Amino acid sequence: MKTLALLLSLAAHVAAIELVNRASSPSTVALQLQRRHGRRPVNPHITRRDSVPETLSNEIIAYTARISLGTGPQEFIVIVDTGSSDLWVNTLQSPICSYRDAGLCGPGGTYDANASTTYTYLNSDFNISYADGSSAQGDYATDTVRVGQVTQQELTGLQFGIAYQSTFPAGILGIGYTANVAQTSTGSGPYHNLPQLLVDQGVIQSNAYSLWLDDINSNTGSLLFGGVDTDKYRGSLQTLPVQQMQGEYRHFVITMSGLSLSGGSGRNRSFEQDLPAAVLLDSGSTITYLPQQLTDEVYAALGIEVDPLARPGYVDVDCSLAESEETLNFAFTSVTISVPMSELVLPGGRSSRTGCMFGIASADTTVGLFGDTFLRSAYVVYDLDNNEISLAQTNFDATTSSVVEIGRGRDSVPGASAVANPVQAPDPQAVGPRLGAPSGSTASASPVGGGTGSTSAANEGKAAVPWVMLGCGVVALAFA
Length: 480
Known about the structure:
- The protein starts with a strand and ends with a strand.
- Helix content is 6%, strand content 36%.
- The chain is mainly beta.
């Protein structure tokens, strides 16, 4: 698949819920986000608790974090993905890293097991595939990991994948449910990934984190493990249940109950097709995917014409659409997130006839996926312990921070209230696995072990998991 080269540039309330506001040192781990730009090159032929800041990179395509692995420390830039659950990094032996001596993996980093005194080999069963057919294979191992920029937090014994074959020049930090780690598709049980290990080793109180990506023009954002930054959103947080898939909690799926267009153009209207709809919240996807008929309604209302010869997912629009005062308003029972047109119009690159592309594409199933073009306008709290998502309208360009710790137990997200009588879409497992993909490839159930586009024997007879793209799967990334 083609690779994308990137140019490198979270009120006191102590009770049964154990919410603690430690103004001096809340139990949180913060990862600061930074935006990156990219271009498309040739394709390799293969491919005591502290508040700990950590730097991530916000690209229109991907968000990355700096971490280190091993003793002595080996530095990495990894793509942060709420839609998968494994951490993996490349080795120098991976063909994409050695391709024509181009140094594609240089900025992302490569792991050398022999250089770490705390490395422990587990097995050679690491095998993960993403929706666009891209993949990584190699060993599972454990080692020491360090996260944090101002104060580094060290965790011991983290299981991760070492990719001797991959189609990404940078590793991926999956922070989803442990039930979705790649080895579960081969019949092995889940293991404790980074978010859970932060709880296990006493760094944060519960397995929960909040995400603030800021606007499309911003260079920074944040991911906050174990806490909420009340300065990063407007209004109040409202909590929705995560829907199960295949009888368990594997992905961050919630129900969109409505969608409308409003603003100064006189094109105000509400959309009705394919609603309510189950949608996946995934920071790893660059754009947002809606069910086909709903997408067609949106395009028609905005006067967007789809070129039948264009690659799937690439919808050219006039760049002036970004100047419109209109918003698309996504409703989740009583919660509404308004997304300005300026957040939905993206640089189209060399594949675009108009210079810009629209940040919403159609899915081949009734399950949607909300990527960065939606998430930039929302402040999202992912509560894995309670299987809940809390949403609020983001506060663009916030310059202050007020971090409150998330405690243990029910109702532990500070300032959040449960939505009454939440709407729930039909069971997501009842729909097929194919969703539209800008890469032009066929999207399949992902991530799964067993190689690109494969499914394991453990999954036979089960409905495929609806999935779109890891953002780096929308366009596989090569750092430069």
